[in-house]
Design goal:
This protein is an alpha/beta fold. Helix content is 25%, strand content 27%.
């Protein structure tokens, strides 16, 4: 899976990316440059997932998510040009790819405590695409969310601001599988997550968890949901 920042690729490039996804079997999650229609401005995130049509023909599906919460600064700039920022109103989807369950958030959406908690027990991984200068504030959200939802967290920010990382719900010195501060050059970071190990840990009681590789699960984790995911009977 390739994850790119918010507001990153032109809308016109998406068919080419979808062709690449279909050929290579590589999922891509990316922010799309603002789309302007009349006086309306749309901030989309595209989730492009490969699949086999009739189980034989390689193809890809593009799912669009319209940003639900715009930060005041983004709204200020849009409205300064006498445009209107259009916010999404539909429920956020939960994707399943290679038996990994994950939602996708666009930057400021993570500031909503209700939004980031809606996939408790279901999310094996949370993906966030960002164009965000406030890396300290969002760094705290990343570390908290990973432990509160007990899942992996993939955060991708522009290299201008940095703090792209993969975080796991472990003790502090081991929580970042990969991380980069930022810089002038674009960076490609590669990391692996172990969904099976996470689920096998989550179904244990505290007595078996306390000396394990992850932090003990928080209150609210529904072990029945975890078992359903393991048994592939959602």
């Amino acid at each position: 899976m390739l994850v790119l920042p918010e507001n990153y690729v032109p809308f016109e490039w998406l068919p080419q990316l979808a062709s690449k996804v279909a050929r290579e079997g590589l999922a891509i999650i990316t922010g799309v440059e603002h789309v302007i229609a009349g006086t309306n401005v749309y901030n989309f995130t595209a989730v492009i997932l490969p699949f086999k049509y009739f189980k034989t023909i390689p193809t890809a599906a593009i799912f669009f998510q319209l940003k639900k919460h715009y930060p005041p600064e983004e709204k200020r700039i849009i409205e300064g040009y006498e445009y209107k920022a259009i916010e999404g109103t539909v429920d956020r989807p939960l994707y399943r790819w290679h038996d990994c369950y994950f939602p996708v958030y666009c930057c400021y959406e993570l500031a909503s405590i209700t939004d980031r908690a809606e996939f408790m027990s279901w999310a094996d991984m949370v993906v966030a695409v960002e164009f965000n200068r406030d890396v300290n504030y969002f760094g705290s959200i990343v570390e908290s969310l990973s432990r509160d939802l007990h899942c992996y967290f993939v955060q991708v920010n522009t290299s201008q601001y940095g703090d792209s990382r993969i975080t796991q719900p472990t003790k502090s010195e081991e929580r970042n599988l990969i991380a980069v501060k930022g810089g002038l050059n674009q960076s490609l970071l590669i990391g692996e997550i172990d969904i099976q190990a996470l689920r096998e840990f989550q179904i244990k009681t505290y007595n078996l968890q306390k000396n394990g590789m992850f932090k003990p699960t928080p209150p609210g984790i529904d072990v029945k949901i975890v078992r359903r995911k393991m048994e592939k009977t959602p």
